[in-house]
Amino acid sequence: MATLPAVKLEMLLNGSWVDMAATPARLDGATPQSRVLWSESGGPVQIVRGVSDEGGTATGTLDCVLENNDGALTPEKATSPFYPYLTKGRQIRFSTYYASAWHQRFGGYVWAEPLTWTNEVGTACNVSISAIDAIGMAYKPLRSVAVEATAARSPIGYWPLTDSESTQAADESGNNRPALAVQQWKTGGEIGWAAGAVLPTDNVGGLTLTPASDSGIYLRSATGIDLPAAWALTVFPTPAAKDGYLCQIGNDSYSIGIWYDTASKKFSAIETMLDSSGDPIDYVLSTSTSAITPGVMESVVVTATTVKLGSSGTTGTRHNSDTMLGSLVSVGGAFAVESGRARMYSGEVKHLGLWGGVGPGGLASDVTNGPAAMFMMSTAIATVMGWSGLTETVSTLGTDQPVQLLKTEGLSAAEILDQYARGSMARIFCGGDGNIVVSAWDYYPTPITAPSGDIDPALEWGADVDGAIAGAKMTFPDGSVYSTGTGELELPGVLSAENGRDVTDWRVLSGGGMPRFPDATYHLLNLSDAEAAALALADVGSVLVVPGLPGQLPSSSQSGIADSLVETYGADVWDMEFTTSPDPRDDLLIVGDATRGVVGSGRMAGPLGPVIPSEGTVRAGDEIDAALLNGVAYAGVEIRTGSLSITPVANTPTSVAVTFTPAYAVAPTAVVLTPATGAINEIQGLGVTAIGTTGFTAWIYRTNTTATTLWWAAS
Asked: Residue 523, class by beta-carbon neighbours within 10 Å (0-12 exposed, 13-18 middle, 19+ buried)?
């Protein structure tokens, strides 16, 4: 029989991992010993990880009780050997030793640690540790993709200029730079907040400025910024038909700005300083090579001796090589102008940044279209977690999927991960090492045997009311509804994008399904070493198989995919409890050229999670509409039906070619397969590939070699 494994419960204190299950330091002079309380005076270590019942993300947790009779684990206790490092949010990890190796089962952050006393005289003190994983830490609301991507590049100062109606534009660099406050030059003019064109990476447009002749409103900082000897400026302007200063950096004595000439439609980098009489005089140092493109990033790079405009092929020489200390920042107008030169800018401006050196590469693309990392799931997850202040390694089990660029403003990274999970049928969770794991829809590992002999005989094996889809209904913002059932030939997911109807809800109507793999608790100390080690290594996304089931059940073995797990470690306890579900991918009506849920160009199977609640609603990701999901409308060509017989290779995708007689003139849009009869729970997958005018290829994935009859419908 298996034996209780050795454990480590470590906290990161002052840069070093301290094991509370070993011999951590004490205050009372007693012999150091494990502080983990397994007995009745404390409680077991319990770990919960996985996904939510609806298929979205869920916060992983660790709970345990530590002995604190000497007060060494009391936060803010100055005499503690761990003072002042017992802070909220410090890292914690838990590992167990079996199969000749250490295995980390939880990595996260201490979130709460209240003290309790177990005797009346107050000498027996415990601290109850509650920890959460990285997903639980990622609930800080994010800013727009453009703002987060820019701020992550460490600007000296950064003003997105996408503020809602206000009297000033906030700095988002994280360096506490002064806001740009509204200034009035003479009289008249208008300013529009969040009124410009909206980039795919933003939720609102930028600042629009409409002067009255050369009078109007602009923005300027009240205090200056010390710039380095070499610095750069980036900005996204859309100028209107008026000469004027887009922006200016410096002070009344010396400044560098960008000026727009409406006749040539070019920018110029202009240096302004005082002449011998104390009047402003300027020098045009660099001018756009050709007419600029509105809405495209412009930049200026300044060194101790030179100035170069990004849209220019030439470099100008400065007339003053002083480092620009105490520089004011103005947008939409200038504070120091040579007599006769227009002062006020007309048009839109947004995303003004100041940088050390020559500025960051690739910023224009990041702000305009979104960072390249935001278009693949693994890198997008790592990116938004980084924007939340968490450095996470993301591993993918199965296929790393492309994703749409999401609007992030106002959402937390955890909420964004939830959208990715629901929209891709992936299980997204924190693994035992604390990093994020994406168990993709197509990940199907080698099954782990879960011995049926350890299941409580009183456990009920009931029908899975959520496991089979009886119909589907889609709702559009205009109130119209598209619905279908499994007996109809109209196919869910094949919807027209006409009239701009965006899919808002996909409601799945569930019927009775196969008997559900039970949420059973396994007592690993009752199993052999090999059985215990196999189950102890199981994780979310693992496939569990229970063989040797009673003859009253439809099959002698059943399998399920782990959605979540609860691990319990005590003085004489080593338990694993799994919440599992059947794989729902193959219950969907697969549309188009697809195999086991992979949908070819122009079709979808449906954004469903690992568990579909009865009458539950699943929402598609932000900005995913019918055009993106379906590409083209259901063609509605001739409908044909038929049947086929296939003898599968057990636990192996097996195919058979089907011929259309006579051939179609135009290839069908879709083919749907469904079992004619039999033990449906043994069929793990159905799919269709190579749809053409003469036929298609049908695929089956079954746990045994039973010859199977399938009905098909093509249209």
From this structure: middle
